[in-house]
Amino acid sequence: MQNTKKRIVELIAESSWETCTVCGTTKTQAVYKYKSMQMVSDYIPPLQEPVCRKCVYREVYGSKNYRKKMKERSLDGKL
């Protein structure tokens, strides 16, 4: 399951001034490309870019456990 999460999320820049497409915040933050998992066989989800770190972790891990995973930086490849 860890490999699937790394394929749907890609770190673009560690620190960049961008506006998140999910929450709309503008600040210096890590920027990601995010594509939702495909649940329906004939639907291709859109690629969202740029997305902030908080929104990516919330989408991948859910609203209950995302803060713990953000501290671990599990999607950044720096375990």
Helix percent reads 25-40%
SSE order in H/E notation? HEEEHH
Strand content: 25-35%
The number of E-state strands comes to 3
Major beta sheet, strand line-up: 1-2-3
What structural class results from the helix and strand content? alpha+beta
Cα end-to-end separation: 16 Å
Mean pLDDT comes to: 81
Shape: globular
Number of helices: 3
Number of domains: 1
Major beta sheet summary:
3 strands, antiparallel
Q: In angstroms, what is the radius of gyration?
A: 12 Å
Q: Which regions contain 5 or more consecutive residues with pLDDT less than 50? A: none
In quaternary terms, these chains amount to: single chain
What does this structure look like?
The chain is globular, with a radius of gyration of 12 Å. The longest helix is centred in the C-terminal third of the chain and has 9 residues, at 53-61. It has one domain. The chain has a three-stranded antiparallel sheet. The model has no long low-confidence stretch (mean pLDDT 81). 29% of the residues lie in helices and 34% in strands. It is of the alpha+beta class and 79 residues long.
